[in-house]
């Protein structure tokens, strides 16, 4: 087993190895459409400093994409969490709603895009697609967390004479919180992944997804890959922030979450 | 607290499951009464009925003349399994009952923790505590609401023997200090005889009161004393009548 303190070292080694593999492959393939590490890093630098072909720089793209995702995500939280709590508390509510929810749940947000293009405009399109992506993981996690409340703990509350409302507030919700926040992380991740597709259909020229699209039109693969990396890094950072917050909030848990 | 001709049955897929049949007994204020009986005879059900967590099928239970109602009466329940709130510290756990009942005052919580030997652990979370400590917190939490009746359901069953013996002593000490009325369910005969004033021996399911024994020995008792061993023999003989293989 790898010792704890050596982990960053081995992780960097692995990363270096992957980069090396990539570079080697690109040299072997030797095509304009398979950029090497150096080219992509160079493109990344250009995007950071000078911006894309319209002069829009990386941080602007990132900001716009982030705002869109956070908008849709907040909407998802505001709708899915209260609904999940209500459905989790009421026996049979989830079962009843399954015929309606399940089919919709399995339509990928991306499949909604053509319809969304017709029915909605500009910012609403983004909001909807991202909301859709984040909504279901959040809803399901919330319901699951609520239903998983330990019956013993509920009994403890009842034995002190607590009413249903008090029990929900003091026992059920705190108990479900870890699962709800885990659902938030997943939902945010899905939402972020939807942003690319969502932006590919929008009219504005700002956005990380739009960036990739712009360069794909002129076949500049190194720029495209740079955009992809940017998306991955931002997604990673958001996940990390949420994870750290979770760890801090749930100091009372001793399990590890991904 | 009075139980009069109590009957309780549950409806299952196989039909009516009669658990308690015609149970009657009384517990006076400040008394420590244990209930022993064969496994599965309904001891826990009896406790839950007295605590108002379940309703009788027929018969009556009264606490100070009224039907048991957790919101009315101040009841302290100590469960056998892990019952602490994992997201609350020791202090916050003990405080829980008081919060629910709108009882102000942090001082009482501190005093109780001190009494239960939990000083220094106020800010710890349940996952950091041993089984014995967790049960101490559970007891403290039950006592924190200054209950009229303390109901304990095999609270030490999941602990190792040594921890159990220590907690027996601690519980006796605390009971002598606060003199609460306690109804204590256990399958451990020795434990019942060590702790209580009276022991109710139940039959196997459907259970009724087989015998009530008075433990007249002065406290603190010795589990190896002649008096206690004699009583123990008696109880085990009674139980053997119900469950021959004991």
Q: What does the model show?
A:
The complex is a heterodimer of chains A (258) and B (246). Chain A is built from ten helices and no strands. With 258 residues, chain A is an all-alpha fold. Chain A has a domain at 64-201: Orthogonal Bundle (MetI-like fold). The relative contact order of chain A is 0.13. The model of chain A has no long low-confidence stretch (mean pLDDT 86). Chain B has 246 residues and is of the alpha/beta class. Chain B has two domains: 2-73 and 148-242, Rossmann fold (3-Layer(aba) Sandwich); 84-146, no CATH class. Chain B is 34% helix and 23% strand. Chain B contains seven helices and nine strands; from the N terminus they run E-E-E-H-E-E-H-H-H-E-H-E-H-E-E-H. In chain B, helix 2 packs parallel to helix 4 (131-143). The longest helix of chain B has 18 residues, at 161-178. Chain B starts with a strand and ends with a helix. The mean pLDDT of chain B is 88. At the A-B interface, helix 7 and helix 8 of A face strand 5 and helix 2 of B.
CATH architecture heading of the largest domain in chain B: 3-Layer(aba) Sandwich
CATH-assigned homologous superfamily of the largest domain in chain B: P-loop containing nucleotide triphosphate hydrolases
Structural class of chain B: alpha/beta
Q: In the CATH hierarchy, what is the architecture of the domain at 64-201 in chain A at level 2? A: Orthogonal Bundle
**Helix-strand pattern of chain A, N to C?**
HHHHHHHHHH
CATH-derived topology of the largest domain in chain B: Rossmann fold
From the helix content, strand content and strand pairing of chain A, which structural class follows?
Answer: mainly alpha
Low-confidence stretches of chain B: none
- Shape assignment of chain B: globular
Give the overall shape of chain A.
globular
Number of strands of chain A: 0
Oligomer: heterodimer
Order of helices and strands of chain B: EEEHEEHHHEHEHEEH
Q: In CATH, what is the class of the domain at 64-201 in chain A? A: Mainly Alpha
Total strands of chain B: 9
Q: How many strands, which pairing sense, and closed or not: the largest β-sheet of chain A?
A: none
